[in-house]
Amino acid sequence: MEFLVNYAWLWGLLGLVLAFFIYKYVMSFPPGDKVMVEIMERIHAGAMVFLKREYKIISVFIVVVFVLLYMGLDHKMTSVAFLAGAICSLMAGVFGMQAATLSNARTAEAAKTHGQATALTVAFFGGSVMGLSVASLGLLGLGVFFMLFAGTDPGVINGFAMGASSIALFARVGGGIFTKTADVGSDLVGKVEAGIPEDDPRNPGVTADNVGDNVGDIAGMGADLFESYVGSVVAAIAIGATMGLGVEGMAMKWMMLPMLFIIVGLASSVIGIGLFNMLKNMSPQSALSNGLYIAGVLFIASSYFVVKTITADMTPEYLQSLGIRGPLGPFWAVLMGIVAGMLIGAVTEYYTARKPIRRIAEASQTGSATTIISGFAVGLESVALPVFFIAMAIWLSYLSCGLYGIAIAGVGMLGTVGMTMSVDSYGPISDNAGGIAEQAHMPPHVREITDGLDAVGNTTAAIGKGFAIGSAALTALAMFAAVSQTMKTYPGFENFALDLTEAHVITGLFLGALIPCLLAAMTMTAVGEAAFDMINEIRRQFREIPGIMAGTTPPDTNSCVDIATTAALKRMILPGIAAVISPVLVGIFIGPEALGGFLAGATLTGVILGLLMANAGGAWDNAKKYIEQGNFGGKGSDAHKAGVVGDTVGDPFKDTSGPAMNILIKLMSVVSLVTLPAIIAIYHMIYG
Amino acid sequence: MEFLVNYAWLWGLLGLVLAFFIYKYVMSFPPGDKVMVEIMERIHAGAMVFLKREYKIISVFIVVVFVLLYMGLDHKMTSVAFLAGAICSLMAGVFGMQAATLSNARTAEAAKTHGQATALTVAFFGGSVMGLSVASLGLLGLGVFFMLFAGTDPGVINGFAMGASSIALFARVGGGIFTKTADVGSDLVGKVEAGIPEDDPRNPGVTADNVGDNVGDIAGMGADLFESYVGSVVAAIAIGATMGLGVEGMAMKWMMLPMLFIIVGLASSVIGIGLFNMLKNMSPQSALSNGLYIAGVLFIASSYFVVKTITADMTPEYLQSLGIRGPLGPFWAVLMGIVAGMLIGAVTEYYTARKPIRRIAEASQTGSATTIISGFAVGLESVALPVFFIAMAIWLSYLSCGLYGIAIAGVGMLGTVGMTMSVDSYGPISDNAGGIAEQAHMPPHVREITDGLDAVGNTTAAIGKGFAIGSAALTALAMFAAVSQTMKTYPGFENFALDLTEAHVITGLFLGALIPCLLAAMTMTAVGEAAFDMINEIRRQFREIPGIMAGTTPPDTNSCVDIATTAALKRMILPGIAAVISPVLVGIFIGPEALGGFLAGATLTGVILGLLMANAGGAWDNAKKYIEQGNFGGKGSDAHKAGVVGDTVGDPFKDTSGPAMNILIKLMSVVSLVTLPAIIAIYHMIYG
């Protein structure tokens, strides 16, 4: 077992090499004719320009935080780990986006010449580059720092998670603003005002819209899951480090366990991806689901053996003293995480694709006001079961192995991130393929195939979002547990407790709750205002360049990409800084108890708002699609118009503000974990 | 001082007598011509029928709970106190509604014959019957039980708060569903489809709409504030009872203090109301604000002397051992409550009447989707400052006198409820007066005056809502503190703590958070579906009775009142039962720690959702009004249409689901406080 962990970085590296070969394999498919290549190149270039500009701004932030950490913390290597975490997240983004934005035309071409099965393969393998990059880079980075510091100074590893979190915030918030600015702007002018279909090449916003799908759902989601993945492992290591109880070598075992889980998780994902060629002749929905099941079952089985081996020489008394119920305790926690993730996914699917969307579609008959009211009610209702499952996962994993169990449940939920993220990335590739088919005027059967792939992609995207929030909740709670456990290791804080009947804790709880509200308000306003600029630009082009509508002059798509990029980058800075600074300020000025309450309040409110907004948005989207299928009057009816309003309102809900919550709650916890020593020192300086 | 408290019930009775004379005074104004009287009678009858039917259902619930409490608790008198609390709340509702629904026509007539000043007086004094009834009945009931049980068994008094809470839930939820079913239904068909103005006598839903204003904003708000008022006093008494520290007679002093505050608070309100005749020639806004200021300043001044007298013979050491900072400690907590209440009111006014509504109105130019997005963003943003003020009030009042301080801050915020509630009730009376002016075709200058009064009423209503949530938060937290302090008095629970790093507490926290979401979803769905029935009924009448639109046949307004009544009563039961049972279940099955987390999670989420929905709703309402004043195209423009959608969405937000949150969080806390002994007993039976 130790052998496996010592070479964890090597398994990560191997995963990356595999991702590279898959990338080459996908690139071996032809991208189609000149027009298709041109469109693909435009999307690719737009995405890369966005990433480059985004990374330039992020790098300033990263350098500043690096310097602050270097100066403020005693363990200088923490700041190096921070840098490494940030770089790994950035690299995963570049690799995944490179593959995805060059797979879209290839998917469309495969649909044209080979049919659905090949198109499905190309889209899936194109997405799996992102999936494998996320899992492998995480393992590589964690492996290196684990090897170097687990034995001497495990706190250093926390820095890696903070680096990942910092990138994730910017990628999610910036990406979210970009994608919805482009989507809302081009839809409102193109579809509603000019009456041209979605993805019509005459719409100046079409490229920005296509770029946005990649920026939001691939780069944003990737950074999000990368953060959860790394964060849950780091939290488990941090808690594990406090579990030695003086028995030689035992703390190391608990620290190794999460690393082992993600090693077997990566292997399970690789096998699942490798077997996909055998599944490609099924319906896209079954192929993807079965891929997920294969990876999941392999992961569960191998986790069982991992846990059995690790706890083999531990006495029942020792386990009990740690609050671990029997030698299989950690296995139950892993299982709890997987089951909770699947249940949350199923509930999300129910609320965004089943009966509730018909209820919204029905309400659309009496106008857009009732569409909004019923959709919001569906969103509120949809919060209940996922939160219940999260609560049960917390409770049961705690019963099975204490606070450590909560972190392990998080690791379990994310163990097969290589596969989950592959399925998530598949969606935008299919969506883009459809866009290219439309813009390049490809034969109808191509659009039919890509539409079929895209429809499945919408469902996987909705499930992915539920999953992302669930994992964010567990990761944030695990981090929160790590913060409080670490707190107890400071001199004078041996009896540190976060008593809810203590006013500082309650004060912190309320202060924490207002941060997600503010972040959601800021990001939503950002989309609203940027979309306004985008609308004016598209209107201007239609007005001033008469050749566009006639199809004789191409629209200036670059200006729209530029508007979305600038808006996204400008608007992501303030929320980002607020998220990083607020826990530090609360900790310093109101004290560590308030900080604990603050994190709990922010996590709780973030989870609630995140689920509410993501699910309401998804439900409105699919209610509109349900009407478009011919229900309640179909396309062009009053119900459809109301449905479009719901869909537009849902856009920033589900793709900007909702997902931003995931990141926020994780980032605030990890910032607290890393800066805790400095916070305590300054607090003591002020209050003595 | 003791003399004052011993006769607290007498002061309450005197307040009631005063309310009766004010009622007689208002009734001495003429109600106008036959048409006006007829409309008034219809509204009056509709309101009374609703109350009667509502009370019939509630009484079943009350009797069941009474029997359960009687059988389940050792202190049988607690169930009697419960009954008394329920009856006092019901009586306040009847008295207030009786006065309000007979003041509307009198206000309109006064506007016609005497002008604005007299109309303002009639509307205000009509509302003050509700204000004085709430304050006096609260004092009367609390006074009786205090006199009988404070010295021997103060826990009995908790029952009074639970009775008040139970009624409040039904009054708020039922009233909220009634008012918005009527409003949304009659607006969508009348204003949007048939193109007739609001309050047009040809609209079959007009009476239901007018009744709804009273049912929601007077009976609902009255029960809400009655509950907060009683609840904060009861929590302060419960905490005070634990503060004796073995010093003879000291616990009694801390228990007396909140009673003294509400006695001087009632006196301050009475003086404020009495002086209103001197203010009536000011603008309505200034007159009402100055009335509030006068009562507030008197209350602060008299609280200062009350605190000085009570703590006069306490040693600094004794005070310090209780965490009370100096002999003026409780005074600072009272002041903190008042200041926080005023600040929350000011923020609410800003978000629902200033720059943010212009932002929403501007966004309405690009359609209803952007109206909704910007309004929701305003709602989210508006949560931040009030939550910040609540957090600061908690922190500072705790610093000034411990957990007791939080309860005292709540008492401070509600001390002048007699005045606050009078101002709140003034709004619907003016609104109704305008409706009567319209339906009775009164001269334009009448409508002008009533519109002016109504506009101020909208602002006071918005502030009142912010205030109601703020006071609910403090009351719920005070109750929560009382629960945990009481917990520590049980054998085996001396060291009871709610450690947030303990999984049961976190599990409870998450479970608690899902309840407000579910309640909001249920109430919102109820309005959506009941409005749908109402719409169909109004459409049917327009279709089948051609004489309605010609003005020759009166519409059947009773059927609409009946639809709203039935829907409200049917739909309030499930949420009501869920709110009462859920804390008991959590406490019994997951344990008292989980119950503590549960209450904290529910309070936090309830406050966030309550503020979000109330303020977003208020902002949409006023954004529409802002457009109607001629901005961005004025009435009939596309921006106006979008504004109407926002207003309609905001209706259930601000008047049904939002206010339901206030009650929910208080009710769950008080149920826990009262049933705690039974919960602990059953928990021990199950888990040993």
Structure commentary:
2 copies of one chain form a homodimer. Chain A has 688 residues and is an all-alpha fold. Chain A is 85% helix and 0% strand. Chain A is built from 21 helices and no strands. In chain A, helix 7 (206-240) packs parallel to helix 16, helix 8 (250-274) packs across helix 14 (368-414) and helix 13 (355-363) runs antiparallel to helix 14 (368-414). The longest helix of chain A is centred in the last third of the chain and has 50 residues, at 638-687. The relative contact order of chain A is 0.14. The model of chain A has no long low-confidence stretch (mean pLDDT 89). Chains A and B meet through helix 6, helix 14, helix 16, helix 17 and helix 20 of A and helix 6, helix 14, helix 16, helix 17 and helix 20 of B.
Would you summarize the structure shown here?
The first copy, chain A, is an all-alpha fold and 688 residues long. Chain A has helices spanning 2-6, 8-27, 34-72, 76-113, 116-149, 156-194, 206-240, 250-274, 276-279, 284-311, 316-321, 329-353, 355-363, 368-414, 417-439, 444-487, 503-544, 547-550, 557-589, 592-628, 638-687.
